[in-house]
Amino acid sequence: MQDALRLEQVSKQYNGFKLEDVNITLPSGCIMGFIGENGAGKTTTIKLILDLIKRDSGSIQILGQECRDMPRALKDSIGVVMDTCCFSEELTAKHVGKIMKGFYASWNQEKYEGLLRQYRIDSMKKVKECSRGMKMKLSMAVALSHDTRILILDEATSGLDPVAREELLETFQDFIQDEEHSIFISSHIISDLEKICDYITFIHKGKILFSEEKDALLESYGILHCSRRELEELSKSAVAGVREGAFGVEALVKRKKIPGGMHVDPANLEDIMLYYSREE
Ligand SMILES: Nc1ncnc2c1ncn2[C@@H]1O[C@H](COP(=O)(O)OP(=O)(O)OP(=O)(O)O)[C@@H](O)[C@H]1O
After folding, report:
1. Is any ligand 1 atom within 6 A of the Cβ of residue 36?
2. Ligand 1: which residue has its CA nearest to atom 27?
3. CA 276 to CA 204: how far, in whole Å?
4. Which of 30, 59, 108, 131 has the greatest count of CB atoms below 10 A from its CB?
5. Distance of CA 41 to CAs 11, 20, 28, 145, Å?
């Protein structure tokens, strides 16, 4: 099946920052979480995918089509939610729907109104009168009310309370039930991504450190508590990161490379990200 998203050797240079040789493949029917510290290059990558800024080199395909000068039919297939609401503050949710109807050929007014009700958004309320969470939900309602095949979300769940986030995560899972739908989502709420993602891509200082299946990633790493001497006896390739404590060391290790008798605790995504960043 065709990939939902494919970036090959994508680079972009700003004064003081370089996004370098980014390679990402998101298969259709999957959710990919995009993680990295502040300033790592997540929004820059997303803007490149959406053709909002020009790349210096590399290729980007969405649903098998080159994203440069995006054709209208492709725009209809992409639902976007950025970290800030992009609708004019004076518009009501009802007005937003009217404008979007002209923008998307496949606009589904009934679905939009249903989502406004589901998200408890008053259609007569102006954008400026909405809380941050309500604005995010409004953006999400728009993103889901056309013939969307891929959702691209930049920090879309930030600012939402845990109940609203849970609701949205369920919406995401419903969305990808059909094998043709996919989601690329950046977030600092790593636990949310751990719940819903099939793939995790980690960007650090403009470079992709890994882009892998989440389950394989979580299975392959673990946390080892041991003495410094025990650590020194391990193969260097077994250790991805070390934290020194008063009573020994704690290390992120590759399970397969650890001798049988040693106990290794499970690592979560946040552990993996923190150890990798620190090691860098
Ligand atoms: N238009 C621009 N001109 C110059 N530098 C920029 C521009 N946009 C972003 N940058 C720089 O690119 C780097 C990456 O920024 P980006 O917004 O992609 O990070 P991010 O991973 O999304 O961070 P955050 O998690 O804080 O949102 C930063 O150093 C930022 O200052």
Report:
1. yes
2. 38
3. 9
4. 30
5. 11, 10, 24, 29
| Angstrom distance (rounded) from CA 266 to CA 23 | 28
**Among 43, 184, 186, 193, residue to substitute to test ligand 1 (most atoms within 8 Å of Cβ):** 43
Cβ distance 77 to 150 under 8 Å? yes
Record: fold of 3-85+143-205: Rossmann fold (3.40.50)
Could you tell which of 11, 12, 13, 17 is best to mutate to test the pocket of ligand 1, judged by most ligand atoms within 8 Å of the CB? 17
State how beta strands 3-14 and 264-266 pair. unpaired
pLDDT of residue 244: 85
CA dihedral 48, 50, 53, 57 (to 10 degrees): 40
Query: Is pLDDT above 70 for 248?
Result: yes
* Entry pTM: 0.92
Tell me how far apart the alpha carbons of residues 10 and 45 are, in angstroms, rounded to a whole number. 9
Domain ranges in the chain?
3-85+143-205, 217-277
